[in-house]
Amino acid sequence: MLLCLDVGNTHILGGVFDGDNLVARFRYATNLIGTADQFGIFLVNILQTNHIVPTDISATAVSSVVPGCDYTIRHTISLYIKSAYFMLQAGVKTGLNIKYKNPNEVGADRIANAIGAVNAFPQKNLIIIDMGTATTLDAITKKRDYLGGAILPGMRLGMESLRTNTAKLMEVDIETPSTYIGRTTRESIQAGLYYGQFGALKEIINGMKREMFHDEPALIIGTGGFAQLFREKSLFDVILPDLVLQGLSRAYDYHVQQDAR
Length: 261
Hints:
Blueprint: E1 2-7, E2 11-18, E3 21-29, H1 36-49, E4 59-64, H2 67-81, E5 84-87, E6 97-98, H3 108-120, E7 126-131, E8 134-140, E9 145-153, H4 155-165, H5 185-213, E10 219-223, E11 238-239, H6 243-260
Parallel strand pairs: 1-4, 4-5, 6-9, 7-10, 10-11
Antiparallel strand pairs: 1-2, 2-3, 7-8, 8-9
């Protein structure tokens, strides 16, 4: 079995694969990771809750955008899982052609998403929208060329910025508003966050299609915690909530194949 961990700014998304099947999925708050013992006890408990014996984990694949957690994660795996360890990072061969000016700048989560997407939809132009702490857009050609993308504040980050930097605006639940025009301050913030993000994404998608794909068809993939809020808006062709885990699994398989050559 393969344990996959995507370490994000807000949550650690985890999953366990038995072959190609995702048999367990969980989240853990990144700011609560604590020591290797604390996170290790959580991992052992969550695996056992899902009827998985920790010794059945043969390898662990990790992507991380939080360098401060990397040592703790690795130490946790060595102490409590005792499996082979693979980190998706700059310099690791992935089967993608990274066209970024500085490939080392591309976040591991974005690479994992791209790997998952090109394996799910081979020979298609792709735009991946990951809606988490930040909202990222990534463009990949049918030839597996990773062209680059865009990054903007996520919905929760926008809400926290309003709350922190204004005197009278409050924290609100992030949800789909019923109207464009709020009739209370709370409803107004919700409408602004939701439709502001929606409008920005539509504009960037259209621009990417023109600039990167020359108006050729491109499949729009949604992932991340807030993607589900836009399910009824025809923004995405498909929503894949486990895309980053699927990508990590594929990246590990590719790594093993390269080592075997």
